[in-house]
Design a protein that fits this description.
Elements (H helix, E strand, L loop, with lengths): L2 E2 L23 H6 L3 E6 H11 L4 E6 L13 H8 L3 E4 L6 H8 L6 E4 H5 L24 H18 L4 H29 L3 E4 L5 H6 L3 E2 L3 H8 L6 H10 L5 E5 L2 E2 L1 H12 L4 E4 L10 H19 L1
Parallel strand pairs: 2-3, 2-4, 4-5, 6-7, 6-8, 8-10
Antiparallel strand pairs: 1-9
Helix pairs in contact: 2-6, 2-7, 6-7, 7-12
Length: 310
């Protein structure tokens, strides 16, 4: 059975439908400190909020370690208090971080909520957007650069509503962040120009928005990556099929935060066939606090692996 890095398992619950960009007033904590507060479900969104807020905003990421898995995270009373006092709450949505949605529902306050999946629009037309073969929605939308830009703009708008004196600064910071995203897009475009149509394999669908944008073809059997994502062992026939396609790929992109005997078998097959294996993540690596720096390094690693495999 697949093992994610240790966290407590949450009982299932229905996802609260949230407004993508609210207009909640500043909460007591923000009023007392004179600074807006942003609570993000993961440090990916926390880093985006920090780029937009600059030194004017206090940002707290509930999950800020690569050792925690948002799918299985169990919220604490401290998390609940932080959300209840937040000016803005940033979540991924789409069922990825349900714990954050439940915290907002039970907060009893009115923070503005930025829901990345809702803002992305990808769930409405997902049959053409980085899906599994059978149309399963890929909720890892922070790998879609357009969505990240929209999230940054929404955070700026909500902070500007709560802190009108600094609204122009938040807007300018979001625009500067957008310019940094443009540099990432340039790397994606260059990779597409050089490597469009080349085959990759993945252990989970985590990076597919980015790799699809780069024109790379995912050849992993959908049943394999879906099983791994759900924490299950794929059927023996599915694993066998996956091991057959791995040597035909130019690179394997693995989720560094998920390990199982099946993913280990994939990595062994890649090594035997001299196929580079890249370790992508769902949260920021230790020592990294910039979304742009993180994704830039991952794109460079992917380009380097494909160049070596050529």
């Amino acid at each position: 059975m697949s093992t994610r890095l240790p966290t407590a398992l949450l009982a299932g619950a229905a996802l609260l439908t949230l407004a993508a960009c609210g207009s909640g007033a500043a909460t007591p904590a923000a009023a007392e400190s004179g600074r807006p507060t942003v609570v993000a479900s993961t440090d990916v969104y926390g880093s985006i909020a920090a780029a937009v807020g600059g030194g004017l905003v206090d940002v707290r990421s509930i999950i800020d370690s690569p050792n925690a898995d948002p799918h299985e995270y169990e919220a604490t009373p401290t998390d609940a208090a932080a959300v209840a006092e937040a000016t803005v709450v940033v979540i991924n949505g789409g069922g990825y971080d349900d714990f954050a949605s439940r915290l907002v529902e039970s907060a009893g306050t009115n923070p503005a909520v930025v829901d990345a999946v809702a803002l992305s629009g990808l769930d409405a037309g997902h049959e053409d957007q980085a899906t599994h073969d059978h149309g399963e929605f890929n909720e890892h939308v922070w790998y879609d650069l357009g969505t990240v830009r929209t999230v940054a703009d929404a955070i700026a708008a909500d902070l500007g509503t709560a802190d009108r004196a600094n609204a122009a600064t938040y807007t300018a910071n979001a625009q500067a962040f957008g310019a940094e995203l443009d540099t990432l897009q340039q790397k994606v475009d260059a990779l597409k120009a050089a490597r469009q149509g080349e085959r990759i394999a993945v252990t989970e669908p985590v990076p597919l928005y980015l790799t699809d944008a780069a024109g790379l073809q995912n050849v992993t059997p959908e049943a394999f990556s879906e099983a791994v994502e759900q924490g299950n062992d794929p059927a023996a026939a599915v694993l066998a099929e996956t091991l057959q396609v791995v040597p035909t790929a130019r690179a394997v992109v693995a989720n560094a935060q998920t390990e199982s005997t099946s993913t280990q078998e994939v990595e062994k097959a890649a090594a035997a066939a001299n196929v580079p294996v890249l370790q992508f993540t769902e949260t920021l690596p230790d020592g990294v606090d910039s979304y742009v720096a993180w994704q830039s390094a991952q794109l460079d690693a992917l380009a380097g692996a494909l160049n070596r495999a050529a």
